[in-house]
Design brief:
There is one protein chain. By secondary structure, the protein is mostly beta strands. The protein has one domain (3-116). The chain has one helix and nine strands. The strands form two sheets. The protein has a five-stranded antiparallel sheet, with no helix packed on it. The protein has a four-stranded antiparallel sheet with strand order 8-7-6-9, with no helix packed on it. A hairpin with a 2-residue loop joins strand 7 and strand 8. The longest helix has 5 residues, at 52-56. The radius of gyration is 14 Å and the shape is globular.
Length: 117
């Protein structure tokens, strides 16, 4: 599954969306401002981050072309996300990790997916 990365500077919104065709089933809030969308087969098909610069503690312009790695793991009990942002300031590399874990209340099927841009 291939994902595309977009960032809306005006709304401070990061979006990872699946390029393929899918039927949306549900959106799950994994943390304030972070939403994970699933298709009817239980596969993650999108990740939206509202207020991304505040969540990652970076300037908005640093989100225009960053390196991201998103790990989504769903077990019978939990939905876990780990989002790693790598960016550079004055040629110095910085990494920010945001990890979340919530109960799998919707009984999403087990899956382990890594998304990069």
């Amino acid at each position: 599954m291939k994902f595309r990365y977009t960032y809306d500077l005006a709304f401070d919104l990061v979006d990872f969306s699946c390029d393929g065709d899918f039927k949306f089933k549900r959106s799950v809030m994994v943390d304030e401002g972070i939403f994970l969308d699933f298709d009817e087969n239980g596969m993650p098909v999108a990740l939206e981050i509202i207020g991304a610069s505040k969540i990652f503690h970076v300037h908005r312009k640093q989100l225009l072309e960053p390196d991201f790695k998103v790990h989504v793991e769903v077990t019978r009990e939990l939905i876990k996300t780990e989002i790693r942002l790598t960016h550079f300031i004055d040629r110095r590399k910085y990494e920010v990790n945001v990890q979340n874990e919530i109960p799998n209340e919707h009984l999403q099927p087990a899956v382990d997916v890594v998304i990069t841009n």
